Task: inverse folding
């Protein structure tokens, strides 16, 4: 079974984003990620016969774009996310005796 | 008195993102499902969504209003309040408020059956050493009322609990006696094959408001194949028990669950038609679990989650067809997932909670006095793995909650913090199942790309969302009806 190689522009995508996207393929593929001067090289070696392997490279490129978008969302919302969850769960707790919410 | 200038009443024209997650739709990769932290959601073109994330959305666009109303963005962030989304989130996680409501009492491991896929370590009918003792029963009742829940569901399980019905009666009376001062709302359920059900047992159940939960795997040939007895009359005994139970307790008090073997996957329509023939209005299509004897015989009876999902799609289409013909018949897991998708409410199903329902939503009191956070943990212990044992009935619930077993559960018990789940659009509607991942993958956190739990959840959410989105108005109405019924029947699935 042949290895699929996908090159991703290291100027556009971080190692974190590439790793997150590649991790989604660890069910059917062994993953190797290498760094060349300008690219990340992702090698996907099938663990067994994969019926739709032809589209894997395109799917991975889409997933990298989606991870890029998720990183943007994270950077803008992680502070408010933490505040929100903490506030919601704090209000869900029963008040301690002598304390008011 | 002078009014402030007009510009003082105009908010900040920009917007900020609120926490959200998204997923490309498998049936249309140009569109995405976008969910808020509390599980409200919309479907948008991916290009439009990308413009929203990168700050290019115009306040005059319909998508802007839609995202704002679902708390995916906050227009005028300096003036906006987070109170509504806090309220939504608390409503969705309402199950956290009172601690475990489902309490499973295993009164005996004995059973008539020799089912090859049995999920527990059943014992032969004569092996009375595997029955719960009176002392254990009394301690378990004391612990039951140590929990704060205002509503307590008590499920009697086995083995076959009817083989030790005197213990069921004693426990029921002890619980009711204690409840005269506790004033909780009690709900009794017995999970039984209903074989050898006597009139005296039924009278007792009627007098104490019991519900019956049994197993019916489909048509006679399949049920008898799955659940062999020497007399080869397993199906007939169960059907007789269902009819007698309905006569005494009422139609609504008897429910049935289906366990799916590999043979079952070949006949989805036959299984559903059997439920219709017997007058059921609910069916539960459950894949086999990797526990107990089920794991030992997995190669013979097992199948992949992919196989199950193909089966489920055919079954769902057939159920929709039956409903279109005017006969109401719902699938209970679909009902639960649809209620999560289509309503803002919480639910009583312990397997779909985050933080996990194991130990926080349910407790199991085993025949020998050991206590577990879930039935699956008990099954693992029966196989010799006590990783999730909480303690014994004569210890305090505080001891159980601080036990190494409970710490293992809690360490992997928040879905939103698990690798891959953290970014999943379905996570606000999903749950964590650390014991299932431990059983299947040897690690309570688990590896999501190869997780059967994750594949099942994602596959069913996708299937239901696609059917709802692309179905006819009649089919949408049927699925919405299932979802709304779930909100009125909170807790029914707890006992499943």
Result:
């Amino acid at each position: 079974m042949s290895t699929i190689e996908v090159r991703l522009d290291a100027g556009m995508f971080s190692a974190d984003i590439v790793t997150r996207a590649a991790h989604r393929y660890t069910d059917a593929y062994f993953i190797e990620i290498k760094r060349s001067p300008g690219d990340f090289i992702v090698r996907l070696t099938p663990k067994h016969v994969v019926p739709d392997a032809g589209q894997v490279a395109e799917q991975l490129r889409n997933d990298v774009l989606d991870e890029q978008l998720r990183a943007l969302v994270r950077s803008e919302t992680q502070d408010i996310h933490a505040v929100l969850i903490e506030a919601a769960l704090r209000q869900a707790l029963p008040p301690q005796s002598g304390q008011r919410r | 008195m002078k009014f402030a200038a007009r510009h003082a009443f105009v908010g900040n024209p920009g917007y900020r993102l609120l926490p959200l997650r998204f997923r490309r739709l498998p049936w249309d990769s140009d569109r995405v499902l976008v969910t808020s932290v509390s599980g409200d959601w919309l479907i948008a073109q991916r290009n439009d969504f990308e413009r929203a994330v990168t700050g290019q959305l115009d306040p005059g666009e319909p998508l802007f209003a839609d995202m704002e109303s679902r708390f995916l963005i906050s227009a005028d962030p300096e003036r906006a309040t987070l109170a509504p989304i806090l309220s939504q989130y608390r409503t969705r996680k309402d199950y956290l408020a009172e601690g475990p409501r489902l309490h499973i009492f295993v009164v005996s491991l004995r059973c008539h059956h020799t089912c090859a896929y049995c999920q527990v370590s059943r014992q032969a009918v004569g092996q009375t050493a595997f029955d719960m003792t009176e002392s254990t029963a009394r301690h378990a009742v004391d612990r039951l009322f140590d929990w704060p829940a205002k509503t307590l569901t008590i499920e009697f399980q086995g083995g076959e609990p009817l083989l030790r019905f005197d213990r069921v009666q004693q426990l029921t009376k002890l619980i009711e006696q204690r409840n005269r001062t506790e004033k909780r709302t009690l709900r009794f359920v017995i999970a039984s094959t209903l074989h050898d059900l006597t009139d005296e047992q039924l009278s007792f159940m009627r007098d104490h408001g019991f519900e019956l939960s049994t197993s019916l795997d489909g048509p006679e040939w399949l049920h008898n194949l799955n659940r062999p007895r020497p007399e080869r009359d397993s199906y007939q005994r169960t059907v007789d028990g269902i009819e007698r139970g309905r006569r005494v307790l009422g139609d609504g008090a008897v429910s049935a669950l289906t366990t799916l073997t590999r043979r079952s996957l070949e006949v989805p329509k036959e299984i559903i038609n059997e439920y219709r023939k017997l007058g059921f209005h609910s069916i539960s299509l459950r894949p086999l679990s990797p526990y107990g004897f089920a794991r030992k015989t997995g190669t013979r009876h097992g199948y992949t989650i992919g196989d199950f999902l193909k089966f489920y799609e055919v079954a769902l289409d057939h159920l929709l067809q039956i409903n279109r013909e005017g006969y109401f018949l719902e699938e209970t897991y679909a009902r639960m997932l649809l209620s999560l998708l289509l309503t803002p409410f919480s639910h009583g199903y312990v397997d779909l909670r985050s933080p996990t329902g194991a130990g926080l939503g349910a407790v199991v009191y085993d025949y020998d006095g050991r206590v577990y956070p879930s039935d699956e943990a008990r099954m693992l212990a029966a196989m010799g793995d006590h990783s999730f044992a909480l303690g014994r009935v004569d210890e305090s619930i505080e001891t159980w909650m601080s036990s190494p077993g409970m710490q293992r559960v809690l360490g992997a018990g928040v879905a939103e913090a698990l690798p891959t789940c953290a970014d999943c659009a379905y996570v606000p509607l999903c749950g964590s199942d650390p014991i299932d991942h431990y059983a299947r993958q040897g690690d309570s956190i688990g590896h999501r790309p190869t997780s059967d739990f994750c594949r099942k959840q994602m596959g069913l959410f996708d299937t239901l969302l696609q059917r709802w989105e692309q179905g006819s108005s009649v089919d949408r109405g049927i699925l919405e009806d299932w979802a709304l019924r779930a909100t009125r029947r909170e807790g029914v699935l707890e006992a499943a």
Observations:
- Residues 97-101 of chain A have pLDDT under 50 and may be disordered.
- The first helix of chain A runs from residue 15 to 23.
